[in-house]
Write a structure and sequence with these properties.
Layout lengths: L1 E5 L2 E5 L24 E4 L18 E8 L2 E8 L4 H12 L8 E5 L3 E4 L12 E4 L12 E4 L9 E2 L3 E4 L13 E7 L1 H8 L14 E7 L2
Antiparallel strand pairs: 1-2, 3-8, 4-5, 4-13, 5-12, 6-7, 7-11, 8-10, 9-11, 9-12
């Protein structure tokens, strides 16, 4: 899926013959009730066990990403999104993100990474669900989890996006917010300039190492 801009609004459209359901940030129609936070294990083979506890309830911590273009840090908000932030911390602590790249870059909008397949269709083999508050705002530097249109509000696997726009972007409150870029913003901005017209990176950007720090 890909983001499109139309009449000042952000429109999500499917691309590709296989309807790559996990490639981008997608709109899902909100239900009448809030989706409860929970872990949902997919049928079939599991690439990785469902996450254990990496953060205590309400705990704040930082994930440091070392890339081939430099380092940046994400301050996790375990109070705002305890389930999704814990999952993000768990994946970083276990080395899941090491060697992965940013497969989708939309200059002036977002960068997206965390896919072990590198084509927007991969994940850890499970998802967690941690809906954001209604009216959530995706401000510059926000780090949130990507999901498919078929997933409920707040669904999260391993794919995440970082807002690189210089103002809040117009997204519905569908995506679990795990934190914000607290250091190395210039590195994220540099990554954000490397997107082509097809939203694919024009240069390879690799997460050489991601680690949970600052606990």
């Amino acid at each position: 899926m890909a983001l499109e801009r139309s009449k000042g609004k952000i429109v999500f459209a499917a691309i590709g013959v296989l309807a790559l359901v996990a490639i981008g940030i997608l709109v899902a129609l909100p239900g009448d009730d809030e989706e409860p936070a929970r872990v949902v294990v997919k049928e079939g083979s599991i690439e990785r066990p469902a996450p254990g506890e990496a953060l205590a309830q309400g705990e704040r911590a930082t994930v440091r990403f070392e890339t081939n273009l430099g380092s940046f840090e994400v301050a996790l908000d375990g109070e705002r999104s305890p389930i999704a932030a814990n999952n993000f911390a768990y994946l970083a602590r276990s080395g899941f993100y090491d060697g992965l790249g940013f497969h989708r870059i939309v200059p002036g909008f977002v960068v997206q990474g965390g896919d072990p397949r590198g084509d927007g269709t991969g994940g850890p083999g499970y998802r967690v669900v941690d809906p954001p508050e209604r009216g959530a705002i995706y401000e510059p530097g926000t780090v949130a989890m990507a999901k498919s249109a078929a997933d409920p509000r707040g669904a999260a696997g391993s794919q995440f996006f970082i807002v690189t726009a210089d103002r809040p972007i117009d997204l519905p409150a569908e995506y679990a917010i795990v934190g914000r870029v607290a250091a190395g913003r210039s590195v994220v901005e540099e990554i954000g300039r490397l997107g082509g017209p097809d939203e694919r990176p024009t240069a390879t950007v690799v997460i050489e190492r991601a680690r949970l720090i600052g606990k």
